[in-house]
Amino acid sequence: MTLAFEPSTLTCAVCGDGIDSGYLPVTGTDGGDEPLTDAAACDACGFTAVGMGGCAPELDDLTDDPAADALCHVRFTGDGVEVLRRK
Ligand SMILES: [Zn+2]
């Protein structure tokens, strides 16, 4: 569960705010998971605007990019991006 590169910031595609913790679609590659940063969503939007009825969003909810393989729940720490969950 490593990212091919760690974005220094992410912006929510729904509300436009910076993301501290949220959902990030990725494309699996030999070098790791490549973040699809354009389709990221913050936690709040992931649950209310994207996911159905207070559930965590599915990959399809965030992007219809055929390159997207998985959805990561990520959190920015002082050191970089931590992947909490990948599905
Ligand atoms: Zn948002």
UniProtKB/TrEMBL annotation:
- Specify the protein name: Uncharacterized protein
Which species is this record about? Haloglomus irregulare
